[in-house]
Write a structure and sequence with these properties.
By secondary structure, the protein is α/β, with parallel strands linked by helices. It is built from six helices and five strands.
Length: 207
């Protein structure tokens, strides 16, 4: 059976009808702000059915079908929620791989999205995940890479992503300048391979 995809009618495609109109309006405004500030595109899709496919397969093909992000930079991202199959996934274009890694997607899903989903607050989980993604996608490049590297190095830390970003912001703007003035040193971060998350994860797409 060939996959069928909903039409890309906007930045939020609520095909599963789980997002109230006021929340959808807020999300659209946030996503428009992301595009204006960073020229990167993030789309939210809720799906009534994965049509028998794994969410990774469906999400990859959906990203290709919609062509999210700039064609040359391949910098689109897709937050997919399939409530009936209890699955959530973050699809990422190759151009965003250095700053939106599997480890970071794991943290966003586990810390920001799933707790709210499990409490019955699907819109709240989508908003929280979107906020974390937007925060990461609008950070300066060096800070975004450091956040991603730290998340990949310790994906099970359980520290909320906003706290990680705040700590790194503090480090980059207050601690690191002092260290460099005293020692003239440089800071480096490490990474780790992909992680497997129940009902979620991230992957690259050729959008």
């Amino acid at each position: 059976m060939a996959q069928e995809f909903p039409a890309l009618a906007g930045r939020v495609v609520d095909a599963a009808s789980i997002i109230p109109p006021d929340v959808e309006a807020q999300l659209n405004a946030k996503l428009a702000g992301l595009e204006s500030q960073s020229q990167r595109q993030l789309v939210i899709a809720t799906l009534p059915s994965l049509q028998g496919y794994e969410i990774s397969d469906y999400g990859y093909q959906l990203g290709r079908h919609w062509g999210i992000g700039d064609k040359e930079r391949n910098d689109g991202a897709l937050l997919i929620v399939a409530p009936n199959e209890r699955k959530v996934r973050i699809e990422v274009g190759y151009g965003l791989e250095p700053i939106l890694t599997d480890g970071l997607a794991h943290l966003i899903i586990q810390n920001d999205i799933l707790p709210r989903f499990k409490a019955g607050d699907m819109p709240g989980g989508i908003v929280a995940g979107t906020d974390s993604l937007i925060t990461q996608l609008t950070l300066p490049e060096d800070q975004a890479r450091q956040v991603a590297a730290d998340a990949s190095a310790a994906p099970e830390s359980g520290i909320p992503l906003p706290m990680i970003i705040w700590l790194l912001f503090f480090f980059f703007f207050f601690v690191l300048p002092v260290i460099r003035r005293v020692q003239g040193g440089r800071a480096y971060g490490g990474g780790a391979g992909p992680v497997i998350v129940w009902g979620g994860g991230s992957s690259r797409s050729s959008g």
